[in-house]
Structures are given as C-alpha cells and as structure tokens.
Amino acid sequence: MKNNSPKECAVTRVIDFRVRLPNSLRPRIESPKELREQYDNVLDISAKIDQTLEDLIAQMEATGVEHAVMHAEYEHGDIADALNESLAGVVTDHPDRFTGIGTITTAPMHIMRAVKQVQQCKDYGFIGVCVESSFYRLGINDKAFYPIYAKAAELNLMV
Q1: CB-based contacts of 19: which residues, under 8 Å, 6+ apart?
Q2: According to the model, what pLDDT value does residue 80 have?
Q3: Dihedral, CA atoms, 78, 81, 83, 84, nearest 10 degrees?
Q4: What are the C-alpha distances in Å from 61 to residues 23, 54, 65, 72, 111?
Q5: What are phi and psi of 101, to 5 degrees?
Q6: Which of 11, 34, 27, 30 is nearest to 81 (CA)?
Q7: What burial letters (b/e) apply to 123-158, b meaning 16+ CB within 10 Å?
Q8: In angstroms, rounded to a whole number, what is the distance separating the alpha carbons of residues 153 and 147?
Q9: Helices 111-123 & 146-154, crossing angle to 10 degrees?
C-alpha cells in the first residue's frame, strides 16, 4: 500500500460557478421590499449590500476559491446593458480570476434589442447569457425567448 504524502496528491482547483456581480459595481436601483425580504431569507443579501470586488476576491482567497464564474443577473428594472459593461470590466481586469455570463433585458422585452445584447455578451468574451424569466412571470420555454436561444446557440453561448 502506497502512502501518499501531501506533495504527491493532486491539487484540486476550486471554481465557484455562481457569483453575482458585487453590488458596488451594479447600478443603484431600489428593490421592492418583498424581493429584498425573499433574498435575505435565502441569501442574506443585505449583509452583502456594500460588498466590493476587493471584498469578493479576499473572500475567495480566504476560502480557497481560485476562479469564479460571475453572473450579471438581475431581478427587476432595465439594467442589463450596465451590468454587462461592469462585468466586462471585471473579466478584462481579472481574466485569471473571473469568467463572465451576461444578461439580457427581459422587461420590457424587445426581441431585437435582446438579440443584440446576446451578441454583445459574445463580444465581451462571456461564455453565456443568464435569462431570469421567472422574475418577469415568463416561462423559460416562452416563444419570445426562441430568437434569443437561437442567437446564443449560433454564437456557442450557454443560456
């Protein structure tokens, strides 16, 4: 029986696949009280309201997370373009630390705008697009999303 010392063991990379763009990099919009309460019950969002990118990186280092896939997701408003732009800055400035998944404007839904946002996500170097349809009372299989899915498939982006 071989005794594996720590030097002989393979190093495991820890990748967090779902990190939100820090609030300090997000446009300031007032969230409905019900939404904040729901998020606090599940994710304790209020405790992270002032989190900066530097705080996130420090937390990743402290917990051994080498890389993270950062999402530009949102739950209300029309802030997709601003989120994607902020995320692009993070990915550009920290390519060894973060990979990006962008977003589209769901409400108001304008198909051609959303298709252009999918293209912009590819242009920014993101690996996918986050579609938060349930926050807008749309099914993920709603026909309105078909052109978005087709464009993402054409560009080899995950959704």
Answers
A1: 56, 68, 69, 70, 71, 98
A2: 93
A3: 150
A4: 19, 11, 6, 22, 40
A5: -125, 115
A6: 27
A7: ebebebbbbbbeeeebeeeeeebeebbebbeeeebe
A8: 10
A9: 20
Output the CA angle 41-44-45, nearest 5 degrees. 115
pLDDT 10s per residue in the chain (159 long)?
455 555 555 667 899 998 988 888 887 766 666 766 666 666 666 666 678 999 999 999 999 999 999 999 877 678 999 999 999 999 999 999 999 999 999 888 899 999 999 999 999 999 999 988 777 778 889 898 999 999 999 999 999
CB distance 127 to 100 below 8 Å: yes
- Which residue is associated with the tokens 């026909």? 143
The residue type of 13 is: R
Which residue type occupies 100?
G
